[in-house]
Specification:
Radius of gyration: 16 Å
Helix content: 25-40%
Shape: globular
InterPro entries: NERD (IPR011528)
Pfam families: NERD
Distance between the termini: 15 Å
Largest sheet: 6 strands, mixed
Protein name: NERD domain-containing protein
């Protein structure tokens, strides 16, 4: 796990980058109060739109930020065999007892214990499953591309 990595040529940073045998996870940690929810509108006659709402506030811009960070990590790795996944981790949110985690535009929205489950999940056994990731090699490439902030 790499923490607080600087994005070169900017003042921005990536909160956490987790490299596991299942891939790379770009994690943006947020300490927001309220319940995260996905509001879906449109569909049949209008374009479908997904809005991330936390405590009644529109927080969709957070998803856009994570997607930009995912693109930067993908570009730095320059390896199509490595899966890079975006995660918004709300650490102080009001999560329900059952369910609660969801995905929007490929970004997982969840809490810290659910993040651990996502990163460490057993991969399904498939005949054409890719080999496990060389964690040390991928981590080294990320360290070179994103120095400590």
């Amino acid at each position: 796990m790499l923490q607080d990595r600087r994005i070169p040529r900017t003042r921005a940073n990536i909160d956490h980058i987790v490299v596991s045998r299942n891939g790379v996870f770009v994690v943006d940690a947020k300490k927001y109060k309220g319940r995260p929810a996905l509001r879906v509108e449109g569909g049949l006659f209008r374009p479908r739109t997904e809005t991330l709402v936390v405590g009644g506030r529109n927080c969709t811009k957070l998803v856009d930020g994570v997607l930009k960070q995912v693109d930067l990590v993908r570009a730095a790795l320059d390896d199509d065999t490595v899966t890079v996944t975006g995660v918004l981790c709300f650490v102080a949110a009001d999560w329900p007892l059952i369910g609660g985690a969801f995905e929007t535009r490929g970004v997982h929205v969840l809490w810290s214990k659910r993040l651990v489950q996502l990163v460490t999940a057993e991969r399904p056994a498939r005949a054409a499953a890719p080999p496990a990731l060389d964690v040390a090699s991928v981590r080294a490439r990320i360290v070179r591309a994103f120095p400590p902030a």
